[in-house]
């Protein structure tokens, strides 16, 4: 009887530990995954902006691009406060400088504890484009993750949905973010549906890459 009681006690203790620890582990995994999604999205929009500027290289750029380069250099060295100062100088010279607003948001996020300012930077980036411009889909995605960090999951879902609407075939990150938001709200079926859609889109992208690689080798 004593052994049975002890075994029951051990089971109860492990059950209690699992109940406490597993949600913490799950949350940390989710936060790490969210961070990777944000960084991937930021890189995409920044690369897009750099490509756009390169196409217009025959036009006089002005000093705002010099401040931008200084900001990127400071950010690469982990000097985020200094980077933000440079991005703000670039923005003073070109108010609709999407690249600078996104970079500022990225630097603020890496500093931590300034999520309201991060959100504001991404909203300014969206305002600098047309909010219905397909090229702003990435920024809507960034806005969604910023809202999630502020525990504004219902608003985050709307931002992710806007990103999906603008670029449905390149919205795996938005579907993932939407899934995290639904899960946080306790809407498991909606979360599972969103994660499934993200996985499907990523599989399609991989398939396209494989086909393109095979085609190029066949030439």
Compose a concise summary of this entry.
The chain has 219 residues and is an all-alpha fold.
Q: Can you give a write-up of this model?
A:
By secondary structure, this protein is mainly alpha-helical. The chain is 82% helix and 0% strand. The protein has helices spanning 2-55, 64-76, 80-93, 98-111, 115-128, 137-149, 153-166, 172-184, 188-218. The relative contact order is 0.08. Residues 44-60 and 208-218 have low confidence and may be disordered.
Largest sheet: none
Overall 3D form: globular
Give me the CATH architecture of the largest domain, please.
Alpha Horseshoe
Total count of domains: 2
Contiguous runs where pLDDT drops below 50 for at least 5 residues = 44-60, 208-218
- Mean of residue pLDDT values: 78
**First and last CA, distance:** 77 Å
- Give the number of DSSP strands: 0
In angstroms, what is the radius of gyration? 22 Å
- The CATH superfamily title of the largest domain: Tetratricopeptide repeat domain
Structural class based on helices, strands and sheet pairing: mainly alpha
Number of helices: 9
Along the chain, the helix and strand elements come as HHHHHHHHH
Helix content: over 70%
CATH class of the largest domain, named: Mainly Alpha
Strand content: under 5%
The third-level CATH topology of the largest domain is: Serine Threonine Protein Phosphatase 5, Tetratricopeptide repeat
């Amino acid at each position: 009887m004593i052994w049975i009681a002890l075994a029951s006690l051990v089971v109860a203790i492990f059950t209690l530990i699992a109940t406490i620890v597993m949600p913490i582990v799950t949350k940390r995994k989710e936060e790490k995954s969210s961070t990777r999604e944000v960084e991937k999205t930021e890189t995409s929009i920044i690369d897009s902006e750099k490509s756009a500027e390169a196409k217009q290289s025959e036009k006089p750029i002005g000093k705002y691009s010099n401040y931008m380069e200084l900001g990127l250099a400071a950010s690469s060295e982990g000097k985020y406060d200094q980077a933000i100062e440079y991005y703000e100088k670039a923005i003073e010279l070109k108010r609709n400088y999407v690249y600078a607003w996104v970079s500022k948001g990225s630097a603020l996020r890496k500093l931590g504890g300034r999520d309201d300012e991060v959100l504001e930077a991404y909203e300014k980036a969206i305002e600098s484009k047309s909010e219905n411009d397909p090229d702003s889909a990435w920024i809507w995605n960034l806005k969604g993750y910023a809202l999630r960090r502020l525990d504004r999951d219902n608003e985050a879902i709307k931002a992710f949905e806007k990103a999906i609407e603008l670029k449905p075939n390149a919205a795996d990150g938005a579907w993932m973010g939407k899934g995290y938001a639904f899960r946080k709200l306790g809407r498991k079926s909606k979360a599972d549906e969103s994660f499934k859609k993200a996985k499907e889109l990523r599989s399609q992208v991989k398939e396209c890459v494989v086909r393109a690689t095979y085609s190029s080798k066949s030439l």
